[in-house]
Amino acid sequence: MKRTNSPENWRKSSYSSGDGGNCLEVSDHLLAARAVVPVRDSKIVAEDAAVLTFSAPAWRAFIASLGPVAP
C-alpha cells in the first residue's frame, strides 16, 4: 500500500487533545477503492511510519462494539 501522510487524508479522533497524548488517526481515502481503513499513531507522521489496515467490515464491527457516543 502506498503510504500518504498528507494531512487532508487523515482525521484525528474526536477524543484527541492538543497536548500530543495517545491518539489514533484514521483515513478514509482507501475505503472506496480497496475497502480497507488505514489507522496510524498521530504522534508519528513520518513517511515510513507504521500504518495498520483493517477491512471495512472489521472496522465497522470495532466501531459498533464501542457502543453509543456520549452527548
Automatic annotation (TrEMBL):
Residues 1-20 are annotated as: Disordered. Residues 1-17 have a biased composition (Polar residues). Residues 9-65 form the DUF397 domain. It comes from the Bacteria. This is DUF397 domain-containing protein. It comes from Streptomyces triticagri.
